[in-house]
Amino acid sequence: MKTLLLWCVLLVLCWPVAIIALILWPLVWLVSIPFRLIGLSFDAIFALLRSILFLPARVLGHRDNSARRAL
Q1: DSSP string covering 26-70, please?
Q2: Distance (Å, rounded) from C-alpha 64 to C-alpha 66?
Q3: Chain centroid to CA 45
Q4: Whole-angstrom Cα distance, residue 42 to residue 44?
Q5: Residue 62 has what pLDDT?
Q6: What is the reported pLDDT for 57?
Q7: pLDDT by 10s per residue, the chain, length 71
Q8: Contact assessment for residue 10 and residue 25, using Cβ atoms and an 8 Å cutoff
Q9: What is the DSSP letter of 54?
Q10: What torsion, rounded to 10 degrees, do the Cα atoms 23, 24, 25, 28 define?
Q11: Using CA of residue 52, residue 57, residue 58, residue 62, what is the dihedral sign?
Q12: 8, 21 in Cβ contact below 8 A?
């Protein structure tokens, strides 16, 4: 909603820039897809490494403080 409102203000103030932004936004979104996939993969790799590193502590029965707060 905020984005639509800002775009409408831009349309009133400077309509050529608003039209160019409207046309280029899907292209920017398409270009950003590979970077999102790279970020998702790195997040998954770090989650896997974290689970591997914390496995001995979990096997020995250590509980995380955030897990206690959730209960």
Answers
A1: HHHHHHHHHHHHHHHHHHHHHHHHHHHHTHHHHHTT---HHHHHH
A2: 5
A3: 16
A4: 5
A5: 74
A6: 82
A7: 898 899 899 889 988 988 998 899 999 999 999 999 999 999 999 999 999 999 888 888 877 666 566 55
A8: no
A9: T
A10: 150
A11: negative
A12: no
- CA atoms of 2 and 7, how far apart (whole Å): 9
pTM: 0.54
Answer whether 18's CB lies under 8 Å from 7's CB. yes
Which residue type does 1 have? M
Task: Identify the residue whose tokens are 């502590």.
Answer: 57
Element (H, E) at 58: helix 55-59
Both structure tokens of 71:
């209960």
- 7 and 24 Cβ atoms separated by less than 8 Å: no
Instruction: Dig out the tokens for 17 from the structure.
Output: 């820039």
Which tokens go with 9? 């203000």
The ranges assigned to domains in the chain are 2-70
